[in-house]
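COURSE: Structural Biology Practicum
ASSIGNMENT: Worksheet 4, Part C
STUDENT ID: 0417
INSTRUCTIONS: Below are two proteins. For each, the amino acid sequence is given first, followed by its structure token string. Answer the questions at the end about the second protein only.

PROTEIN I
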Amino acid sequence: MVSLRVLTGDDWPLWREARLAALADAPHAFKARLGDWPRGGEERWRARLTLPGAHNVVALRDGRPAGMAGGVPGQGGAVELRSLWVGPGARGQGVGDRLIGEVEAWALRSGATTLRLAVLPDNAPAAALYRRHGFVPTGGLGDLLPDGVSRERLMAKPLGRPPDRETDHARGR
């Protein structure tokens, strides 16, 4: 059984554990490299979790990180999905779906109209997961990658309004 836990600044050791596991397991999926992160100490790890308006979540199985994702405020009604990772033992079990759903729910509660992300060009499994959740390529190119040639691929999903519970209840939903 996998549970989701929304993180606070005090959860930085759990965030560190998940992030280092993600970078070690799937270096091909992230712009950042494992060697970039062990340095810095508590302040660096805590900084990501205390970014104003951000939403970070870890999927836990038996108290250990099985996945992670973050939501970061953006510009013009958009927010960003970042750092999505599902551990090898949890893949194919809906953990990625739950993490994306959690960040999307946060985005809706935040009043965002668009959820954006950047995916590395060779990460076909991630791109397929995002397409399944309604993300489409924007046609724009993201940041330049360390090879100096390739760029991230940008995807976005328009967001509707959060459901009006009273109206839905009155309609028998």
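PROTEIN II
(use this one for the questions)
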Amino acid sequence: MEARAAAIAAGEAGELVWLLEHPPLYTAGVSAKDGDLLDPTRFPVFRSGRGGQFTYHGPGQRVAYIMLDLRERGRDVTKFVADLERWIIGALGEFNVKGEVREGRVGVWVERKGPGWAREDKIAAIGVRLRKWVSFHGIALNVEPDLEHFSGITPCGISAPQFGVTSLVDLGLPVTMADADAALRASFERVFGATKTTAPPL
């Protein structure tokens, strides 16, 4: 990923988005606090250069690494992050899920209510970095991960009981990874422009 971002910055490669799944692991962004790693022996822990704190990646979660050239897209970091949020929110809208952003809480959230209770659950995380105006790292959308795996960390440093983690399947939607990919692609094209499929790197 970093090699590709460097090649884009050097004018030697084009923009690229990788869609993948990780084995179960925790990643720590540059703002991660050691106390938020509640179970350090549960899964491998990777320190990364992306923004943000601790997050979980694993099967059933669509991770998208986004290598875009912001020199060609306005050199506006605030707009880029807002566009990532719009991308995720648009993809969720394909399943009639209302994703929202909240000031002071990174990522995309959904409101959940029942008799006598209300909460907001995070359904997608965002953690990016720029080098020479080329982005890398990216987003993680919860399609059908094991949500219990998030209990080994304080996700993104947020531990208040009214905030949790959810997924499309947890919301009662029988969404497959292929369904999620189609929604992500359609929304990406609305926000960032046309795409074409390419073979994965060796």
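ANSWER KEY EXCERPT:
Q1: Residues 187 and 193 are 9 Å apart (CA to CA).
Q2: The radius of gyration is 17 Å.
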